[in-house]
Amino acid sequence: MKIGITGATGQLGSLVIEHLKSKTASENIVALVRNQEKAAGLGVESRSFDYNDAETLKQSLSGIDYLLLISSSEVGQRARQHKNVIEAAKEAGVKWIVYTSLLHADTSSLSLAGEHLETEALLKDAGIPVTILRNGWYTENYLGSVDSALKAGAFIGSAGEGKISSAARNDFAEAAAVVISDPKHQGKVYELAGDESYTLSDLAKEISKQAGKEIPYNNLEEAQYAEILESVGLPAEFAQAIAGWDVSASKGDLFDNSKTLSELIQRPTTPMRESVAQTLN
After folding, report:
1. Where are its TM segments located (predicted)?
2. Same domain? 76 vs 147
3. Are residues 231 and 144 in the same domain?
4. Summary count for the chain: helices (H), strands (E)
5. How many structural domains comprise the chain?
6. Nearest to 17 by CA among 1, 36, 35, 4
């Protein structure tokens, strides 16, 4: 039984492979990557796999039984790229696809939702058994701003008092490994999020507590937040997207209290305070 993992050298994919090694023999795992040199340290077979190269995808999927399709990092190109992979999987005889989608993709106002929904529809029509992992926010998405917050003396955003049910990236990776290694999950749609929920004010308080320095949360208008992000070097389009995602968070789009993620991994998800501690240490 061969299990293929796309984006296997990425932050999520490399963690999935480590968890998979405890569930199946390494020779059953295939890392599907754009750069095989980067995959050398994964300890599993690697194959060249570029979402844009429709011609070689089928060949790379030869002999793959189960495929974890980790969504492309190229926002705006995802639906087209995923379509390439899905069509190649059909031709190569892949028996099951697990896809990493977005939390509550069918109701979310996040700008990311559209491409995920389009991919989910393509998978539904593919005629291959499918499982959808609708991943919530990684806590790391916010903790990347800790250093700048400490330097500036404030944590900024546009999420208001929206509750964010994030979990560590490793939690989502473990869930993906649990699912792809057991066919009993076929046909399911899982809404995955952290056990605890917090606001960005709560996050700022935790950072303040652990850093020993008062870091208030300053809630900004969407345009103002995007302007600040752009001023520190982010491309305008990406800055606007980040600010927009925060506004969606203010509407509850990153909240979920089902605890499905912790049920899958059979342990509590990583508390936000632990992720903050890892960031500060």
Report:
1. none
2. no
3. yes
4. 12, 9
5. 2
6. 4
DSSP 33-98: ES-GGGGGGGSSEEEE--TT-HHHHHHHTTT--EEEEPPPS-TTTHHHHHHHHHHHHHHHT--EEE
For residue 11, the model assigns a pLDDT of: 95
CA gap 274, 266 in Å, rounded: 18
In whole angstroms, give the CA distance from residue 129 to residue 195. 29
> pLDDT digits over 227-281, tens only?
999 998 889 999 999 999 999 999 999 999 999 999 999 999 999 999 999 999 8
DSSP per-residue letters across 114-164 = HHHHHHHHHHHTTTS-EEEEEE--BTHHHHTTHHHHHHHTSEEES-TT--B
147 and 70 within one domain: no
Q: Please, what is the average pLDDT of the chain?
A: 95
What CATH code is carried by the domain that includes residue 228? 3.90.25.10
Q: Is residue 53's pLDDT more than 90? A: no
Q: What is this structure's pTM?
A: 0.95
Q: Which of 137, 112, 138 is nearest to 254 (CA)?
A: 137
Average pLDDT value for residue range 142-171: 95
Do residues 159 and 114 share a domain? no
Nearest one of 36, 59, 51 to 6, comparing CA atoms: 51
Q: What are the backbone dihedrals phi and psi of residue 221, each rounded to the nearest 5 degrees, phi first?
A: -65, 150
Rounded Cα–Cα distance for residues 65 and 129 (Å): 11
Q: Measured between alpha carbons, how far is 96 from 183 in angstroms, rounded to an integer?
A: 8
The residues near 144 (Cβ < 8 Å, ≥ 6 apart) are none
Q: Nearest 5°: phi and psi at 210? A: -80, -30
Based on the fold, state whether residues 127 and 11 are members of the same structural domain. yes
Q: Residue 120: give the domain boundaries.
A: 3-135
Which residues make beta-bridge pairs with 57?
Answer: none
* Residue 9 near residue 38 (C-beta atoms within 8 A): yes
